[in-house]
Design goal:
Strands 1, 2, 3, 4, 5, 6, 7 and 8 form an eight-stranded antiparallel β-sheet that branches. The protein has 140 residues and is of the alpha+beta class. The protein has one domain.
Length: 140
């Protein structure tokens, strides 16, 4: 997927996710411009069977194309958090070096149990990858 050149392009992408992914039941995603070159994407994407994807992204476009400065994504089923992903660097964990700073927190002890997350990026949108992961959980 090509990086977006503007916040408007990214907004169009975000607000048409249901057109691209029919498994999405609803979305409360909202893209807020917070400054001249800074924005945030927050909200939740809902799927069948109680699956939810909570989204937070800090975005900037001062380098010409839109980039994700930082993110946090949580995947839930009902009241159970299945895993989460974030871009907080862990330079002292050699098992995460291949995808630094991208990693996923998984059970058991998800706070401390981290694995590499090669499908995530700071320069390309992460939502398609994350939605496809939920589709796998749904057996689609």
């Amino acid at each position: 997927m090509t990086p977006f050149q503007s916040l408007r392009e990214y907004g169009t992408f975000v607000y048409t996710l249901r057109d691209q992914f029919p498994c999405i039941v609803s979305s409360t995603l909202v893209l807020y411009q917070r400054g001249r070159m800074f924005a945030e994407l927050t909200g939740e994407v809902s799927f069948p069977e109680g699956y939810r994807l909570n989204v937070f992204e800090r975005l900037t476009w001062d380098s010409g194309s839109l980039a994700i400065e930082g993110y946090s994504y949580e995947v839930w089923r009902g009241g159970e958090e299945l895993y989460w992903c974030d871009s907080q660097p862990h330079p002292n964990d050699p098992t995460l070096a291949d995808t630094d700073p991208h990693h996923k927190h998984v059970p058991p002890d998800a706070k401390h149990n981290r694995i590499p997350a090669p499908g995530l990026s700071l320069t390309e949108p992460n939502l398609p990858f994350l939605i496809r992961e939920v589709e796998v959980l749904l057996g689609r």
